[in-house]
């Protein structure tokens, strides 16, 4: 395996790990809230957990699937934020799980040429690598927002790293 292929493999593996970590945290967070709380908005300028999950699904599909596979972009972004219910916690988790798995599959099969090729997404020019970085950081960003909102609602730790000593020092 040449160095470029090794880099690609390592990069994809780390992207997939980070997406799986966000999904793990979303499952923990959603387990702590009621069905009604999933669609509760903190105030009129913020989004519900349900809206954020729909938004993540739309964004990951646009950046992580449609753009990278050069298929039609069918995203309806406004619906991600205007929806006020109709999906349960389990349906939302299943929806995002399916999208994450499809994105991971896309990342794993994308050519090096496409990774380096610039394409326009949402009016911005990104390489395939740029799309992948966007998908991972955007998922992480909104996962953090959801975690914050759940902590505020429940006034308790979510225990994302229970059983891990986060004070362990780096080793050379």
Structure description:
Pfam families: DUF1572. InterPro entries: DinB/YfiT-like (IPR034660), DUF1572 (IPR011466). It comes from Croceivirga thetidis. This is DUF1572 family protein. With 172 residues, this protein is mainly α. The chain has one domain: Four Helix Bundle (Hemerythrin (Met), subunit A) (Up-down Bundle), CATH 1.20.120. Helices cover 66% and strands 5% of the residues. The chain has helices at residues 3-31, 35-38, 49-69, 77-82, 89-109, 112-116, 128-154, and strands at residues 118-121, 124-127. Strands 1-2 form a two-stranded antiparallel sheet. Strand 1 (118-121) and strand 2 (124-127) form a beta hairpin. Helix 1 (3-31) packs antiparallel against helix 5 (89-109), helix 1 (3-31) runs parallel beside helix 7 (128-154) and helix 3 runs antiparallel to helix 7. It is globular. The chain starts with a helix and ends in an 18-residue tail after the last helix.
Number of domains: 1
**By CATH's scheme, which homologous superfamily applies?**
dinb family like domain
Helix content: 55-70%
Approximately how much beta-strand content do the residues carry? under 5%
Structural class: mainly alpha
pLDDT below 50 for ≥5 consecutive residues: which ranges? none
CATH class: Mainly Alpha
Mean pLDDT over the full residue set: 95
Q: Determine the oligomeric state from the structure.
A: single chain
CATH architecture name = Up-down Bundle
Order of helices and strands: HHHHHHEEH
Largest sheet: 2 strands, antiparallel
Number of helices: 7
Straight-line distance between termini: 26 Å
Number of strands: 2
Taking all Cα atoms into account, the compactness measure Rg is 17 Å
Global shape = globular
Q: Looking at CATH, which topology would you report?
A: Four Helix Bundle (Hemerythrin (Met), subunit A)
Strand line-up across the major sheet: 1-2
């Amino acid at each position: 395996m040449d160095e470029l292929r090794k880099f690609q493999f390592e990069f994809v593996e780390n992207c997939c790990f980070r997406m799986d970590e966000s999904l793990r945290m979303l499952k923990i967070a959603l387990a702590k809230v009621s069905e009604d709380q999933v669609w509760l908005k903190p105030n009129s300028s913020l989004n519900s957990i349900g809206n954020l999950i729909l938004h993540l699904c739309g964004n990951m599909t646009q950046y992580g699937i449609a753009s990278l596979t050069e298929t039609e972009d069918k995203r309806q972004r406004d619906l991600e934020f205007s929806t006020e219910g109709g999906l349960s916690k389990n349906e939302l988790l299943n929806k995002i799980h399916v999208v994450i798995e499809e994105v991971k599959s896309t990342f794993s099969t994308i050519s090096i040429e496409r990774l380096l090729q610039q394409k326009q997404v949402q009016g911005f020019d990104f390489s395939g690598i740029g799309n992948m970085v966007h998908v991972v950081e955007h998922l992480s960003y909104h996962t953090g927002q959801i975690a914050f909102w759940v902590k505020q609602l429940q006034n308790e730790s979510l225990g994302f790293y229970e059983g891990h000593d986060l004070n362990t020092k780096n080793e050379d």
